[in-house]
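okkk here we go again. third time trying to get the calcium ion bound version out, last two times i messed up the smiles copy paste (missing a bracket lol). double checked this time i swear
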Amino acid sequence: MKRFGDLDSRVAKLAQSFGPFCRKSARLSLQTGRTSRYRHLAGKILLITGIVVLLSVCPTQGQQPERAKDSRPNILFIMTDQHRWDCLGANGNSLIKTPELDRLAKSGANFTHCFVQAPVCVPSRVSFFTGRYPHSHRNRVNYTPLDRGEVLMQARLKQAGYATASVGKLHYYPPTAQEAKRTGFDFVELHDAVRPLDHYSDYVAWRKAYDPQSDIYYRALAKDIPPGKNPFRQAINEKYSETTWVGERTRHYIRQLADGDKPFFLFSSFWKPHSPFEVPQPFDAMYDDVDIPLPKATTLAEIQKLPLPLRLLILRGHPVYDTDRERLQWMYRSYYGAISHIDREIGLVMQTLKDAGVAENTIVVFSSDHGDQLLEHGLQGKNCFFESSVRVPLIVWYPPSVKAAQHNELVESVDVLPTLFELAGLDEPYANQGRSLVPLITDSDRPYTPRECVFSENVIPEVITSGRLDFAFIKGEGIKGVRHPDAKMVRTRRWKLNYYPGNGEELYDLQNDPGEETNLADSPEHQQIVYEMKDRLLHWLSTADEPDQIAPRWLR
Ligand SMILES: [Ca+2]
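finally!!
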């Protein structure tokens, strides 16, 4: 038995080298070599002959990539952090300067209605990377570890023969390169950009090595800003900023991976335009003469009318809902400047794809993990279901098969994974809950069924911890003995229902109230809509966990 055991493992090893079709031949070759001494020698000769024959007829690890490189596209996934859908020229914003992203949007598939599955970093990112809703992948809160049962996009692509690399923000826990590699990245350059984690940051180490002013904290504001100029001007030089670093390292990996034998998956993750609003020269002054329309001022009385979890979220810590208008204008200009800075880097990245000779065979995806309220409804940041938080840019660019078009269909961030896999010719993972957009964006004959509604969900932990990152969880009792306000959003083209269990609801008519200012949840004439929207939520919750009712066949 032991010998058979040994044989089995050797067969497996050999077959792994030669490919599955050679398994039988590998077993025969190995079996031939285990009888008498003479036959052992003869077997060895036969084995070597067998290997030579197998090498000539089976694709080897060394030969396979040549063929793979021709048939499977590279994937460059560019993500920004806290980037609202409407802060993109291609989405109708005539004030923001994003020429490179606009070019990408105009020559690719640009989605104007893409919604994230959670309006906060980690749950949203894990949904992008698993194609699964937060209540399924269970990574509900920032600074919580990934469920070991979840397989992320990079692991699947690596298994399929891709070289995988990540530059910039990942936000996994533990926040180390080792953990990032465990999730499937071959190469990792990390910058999660939170001060307590800076000792893990490759960006911080790079600045120490190259920036003569590395003793200045990268978020520090300049001290010599004259009145009337941007008070958020960053103290450090732009060429040592985190945005420039992510761009440079992305280009480095494009050049390195384009030279390799395997197709590549490169995740390029910018930390900006996330607040605080520090922005380097010259981007600090780029919008000096532009008056960006500001949201209307929010009063405490208006905030107090909102459902309890939302009210507590806006008023937690040191609320800034009454920030003065001049400062708010500079916040907007700085946010726009940070996006224009990223846009410049993306232009350079696209040029590097061309220079490296891989632009024709690389799928480029651009999106963000959530938006930013920028003081709409009195909130700085996100964690809520208003459009500015849950709606993000999404561009899929791949000229060989993706048609240049704008799409106004409702789509979700879980749709990105199955879309990329189908474009790359890979099987859709069984656990995936998204819907491939390929029939919508290519000449595919398969029909595309548009979504009637999209979903998002959030446990709003900051409500309990007042913004501190202390999420001690007691099973069955919630965080610090308090059950999460496990809020859910369902949105159709016209209606949005936000449901806070035990703490009320919001219903907005997006057609007549795009600013989401009038909550109709208690209006008697809208109770049928409330009922229908809750029915959609229940239907989703009771079906989303199972991609199908029947397990996949063991053998195909
Ligand atoms: Ca984020």
